[in-house]
Write a structure and sequence with these properties.
The complex is a heterodimer of chains A (about 130) and B (about 140).
Chain A: E1 2-7, H1 16-29, E2 33-39, H2 60-71, E3 75-78, H3 79-85, H4 90-95, E4 107-110, H5 113-121, E5 124-128
Parallel strand pairs in A: 1-2, 1-5, 2-3, 3-4
Helix pairs in contact in A: 1-2
Chain B: E1 7-12, H1 21-32, E2 38-43, H2 67-71, E3 80-83, H3 84-89, E4 101-104, E5 110-113, E6 115-118, H4 120-128, E7 132-135
Parallel strand pairs in B: 1-2, 1-7, 2-3, 3-6
Antiparallel strand pairs in B: 4-5
The chains are: A alpha/beta (about 130), B alpha/beta (about 140).
Chain lengths: ~130, ~140
């Protein structure tokens, strides 16, 4: 089945990203297709490479990045939500005159149209959040 | 943008200003309106407060985004379901809500109400009938 995933909460504060990761990984291992993973609301916080959790805990950002590398996942961070919360790639840094970037390279920043398109193109949109 | 037409329901469950879900939901609705899908909104639980009339955020510092709901009709978003039980549980009635309308181009731009109050069981049927439910 062709699925898309929406994640509405940031890492660690909330289980949504963990549950979404496990669901996505299990779906891929079962041979399902993941059309897109879309990060919205505080979910955009899953896309910063600057997180440094304690070494004996899971690294949520790296875990997503590794999964993306393994399965060529399209992981999209909503631009409007990202701008509010300070998730920045080079294009956004230039456009908004910021002195740094923090996006994890396996993620990309794009518009909400990507979420709508994912909902249209996929057989199911599975939403993780409160 | 896409030849495929699906039924999209945006389910609004939260009060407008305590969290950002309501405002960011509205942003999805506005962007999504460009995609020519069949769109409706539902307001349940504290989500019914999102469309209460006379919202004033001046002392909280939050942006008052409630006027945006009045523009939805211009985006061909004109099916707004409000759950009757959610209103009643909060001591509200349809008279407490903004008067949201749209203009029907098939009937010489006649002004029509966008809001329809439905029961919990009607709403569950509406939800079951959707292809996609965005829950905020």
């Amino acid at each position: 089945m062709k699925l898309s995933i929406q994640i509405n909460e940031g890492p660690y504060q909330h289980q949504a990203s963990d549950s979404a990761y496990m669901f996505t990984k299990a779906a891929l291992e079962k041979g399902h297709e993941i059309f897109r993973v879309f990060f919205y609301h505080d979910g955009v916080g899953n896309g910063t490479r600057l997180t440094t959790p304690p070494q004996d805990d899971r690294n949520i950002v790296n875990r997503w990045a590794d999964l993306a590398d393994e399965y060529k996942l399209d992981m999209v961070v909503c631009v409007a939500a990202a701008q509010r919360r300070g998730i920045v790639d080079e294009g956004e840094a230039e456009r908004n005159k910021k002195d740094a970037t923090n996006i994890q390279p396996q993620f990309r920043i794009s518009g909400l149209g990507q979420l709508i398109e994912a909902a249209v193109q996929s057989e199911r949109l599975v939403v993780f959040g409160d | 943008m896409s030849e495929q037409i699906k039924k999209f329901l945006y389910l609004n469950r939260r009060a407008p200003y305590g969290t950002i879900y309501a405002w960011e939901s509205l942003e999805v609705v506005l962007i999504g309106a460009a995609f020519d899908q069949k769109v409706s909104l539902a307001f349940v639980d504290d989500g019914v407060f999102e469309i209460v009339k006379g919202q004033d955020t001046s002392e909280s510092g939050f942006k008052n985004f409630s006027p945006t709901y009045a523009a939805l009709g211009d985006y061909d978003v004109n099916q707004l379901f409000v759950e009757k039980e959610s209103l009643e549980e909060r001591g509200l009635s349809i008279d407490d809500l903004m008067h949201l309308t749209w203009e029907d181009e098939d009937e010489d731009w006649a002004e029509k109400d966008s809001i329809r109050v439905v029961s919990r069981s009607e709403l569950s049927e509406i939800m079951a009938d959707q292809d996609v439910v965005f829950s905020f």
